[in-house]
């Protein structure tokens, strides 16, 4: 519990206090945002705002999590280190994309194919490590079964044999990671929208993982009367700690990222955050609950898919003025702050509805 509180406090202080220092450094390096010409005209004033703020978020997470463990004298868990590792890996892909935009002096960085290939490489390495190195209870961070609120016993990749199961799991993991990281990336279009929405999503995962710790099958203090409801999840308390570090780092960053933003997270931050969300879903065995918990990201991604599909089928007609959906409301004349706050409300409702369903499943068993 002490590690959980310390990691949150240290991550919050890091990003809250040091973000202005990094912003000045980014300005000296010329790391300014470029705005696409076909986007809302209100965005043109944001041109040149320092970007790649995801670096600050990631450093805040690493600092808060590891220093908290050092102070408490605890050993970082394998599961949480993997969560941070996939965030750093996807953050590196995002950094290459952001840096390419700056170097080429345009709003297009890596090609979509190159970005997806990078995400798949990171996701594949993550999947291999996630089902390796079992602990003393025989648990690996992830399992070969597809999960909703717990593993679905009859829906497991183990049926494909040893090699086949690893390949199938790698494909499944890549699908979750690539989809989620790109969804958060699409959400990052207004000041504070992606950061604030991600705070709410990780807040739900703090609650879920902490409850799994409280009802862990491997806890010596588990009440025998409810032992049949327990969760076979590895390192649940430390997963809550790393989720708290991510959440707190985002809160400190959001102080400077709200409208008018002093810094943008860029693809460095949005791809990393998506990877963190995906990893938490896989490790807490809530993979099929992820579309609800991260529902706002799904809605905004669906708006892009619908827009492009309809545009191609009708040869130029549109459903929305622009996509993702938040740009549609911008063009309609909604104030940016109004859109962001209302979308935060939607994100919070969906995230905690997902956490509520998770808890109701425990009550109903």
Topology (elements, then pairings):
Layout: H1 2-29, H2 54-72, H3 78-104, H4 112-130, E1 145-147, E2 151-156, H5 161-187, H6 193-214, H7 236-257, H8 266-283, H9 290-293, H10 295-313, H11 325-332, H12 336-364
Helix pairs in contact: 1-2, 1-7, 2-3, 2-7, 2-8, 3-4, 3-7, 3-8, 4-5, 5-8, 5-10, 6-7, 6-8, 6-12
Keywords: Cell cycle, Cell division, Cell membrane, Cell shape, Cell wall biogenesis/degradation, Magnesium, Membrane, Metal-binding, Peptidoglycan synthesis, Transferase, Transmembrane, Transmembrane helix
EC number: 2.7.8.13
Cofactor: Mg(2+)
User: What's the shape?
Assistant: globular
What class would the helix/strand composition place it in? mainly alpha
| Count of alpha/pi helices | 12
Regions with pLDDT < 50 over 5+ consecutive residues? none
Euclidean distance between termini CA atoms:
27 Å
> What is the string of SSEs from the N terminus onward?
HHHHEEHHHHHHHH
Structural Rg: 20 Å
Number of domains: 1
Query: Number of DSSP strands?
Result: 2
The biggest sheet amounts to: 2 strands, antiparallel
Q: What is the topology, as strand order, of the major beta sheet?
A: 1-2
| Range of helix content | 55-70%
Proportion of residues in β-strands:
under 5%
Mean pLDDT: 92
């Amino acid at each position: 519990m002490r590690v959980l509180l310390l990691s949150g406090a240290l991550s919050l202080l890091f990003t809250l206090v040091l973000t202005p220092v990094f912003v000045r450094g980014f300005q000296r390096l010329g790391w300014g945002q470029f705005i696409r010409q076909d986007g809302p005209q209100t965005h043109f004033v944001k041109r040149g705002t320092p970007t790649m703020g995801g670096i600050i978020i990631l450093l805040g997470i690493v600092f808060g999590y590891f220093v908290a463990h050092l102070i408490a004298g605890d050993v970082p868990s394998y599961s949480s280190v993997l969560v941070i590792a996939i965030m750093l890996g996807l953050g590196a892909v995002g950094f290459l994309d952001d840096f390419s935009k700056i170097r080429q002096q345009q709003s297009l960085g890596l090609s979509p194919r190159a970005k997806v290939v990078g995400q798949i490489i990171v996701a594949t390495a993550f999947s291999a490590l996630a089902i390796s190195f079992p602990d003393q209870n025989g648990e690996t961070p992830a399992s070969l079964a597809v999960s909703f609120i717990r593993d679905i016993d009859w829906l497991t990749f183990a049926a494909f044999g040893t090699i086949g199961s690893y390949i199938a799991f790698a494909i499944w993991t890549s699908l979750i990671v690539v989809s989620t990281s790109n969804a958060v990336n699409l959400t990052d279009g207004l000041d504070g929208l992606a950061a604030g929405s991600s705070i709410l999503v990780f807040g739900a995962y703090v609650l879920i993982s902490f409850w799994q710790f409280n009802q862990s099958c491997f806890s010596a203090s588990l009440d025998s009367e409810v032992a049949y409801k327990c969760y076979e999840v590895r390192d649940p308390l430390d997963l809550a700690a790393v989720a708290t570090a991510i959440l707190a780092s985002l809160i400190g960053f959001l102080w400077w990222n709200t409208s008018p933003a002093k810094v943008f997270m860029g693809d460095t931050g949005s791809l990393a955050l998506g990877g963190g969300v995906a990893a938490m879903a896989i490790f807490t065995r809530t993979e099929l609950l992820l579309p609800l918990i991260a529902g706002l990201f799904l809605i905004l991604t669906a708006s892009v898919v619908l827009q492009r599909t309809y545009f191609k089928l009708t040869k130029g007609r549109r459903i929305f003025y622009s996509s993702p959906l938040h740009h549609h409301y911008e063009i309609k004349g909604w104030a940016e702050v109004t859109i962001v706050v209302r979308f935060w409300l939607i994100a919070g409702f969906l995230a905690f509805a997902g956490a509520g369903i998770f808890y109701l499943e425990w009550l109903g068993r």
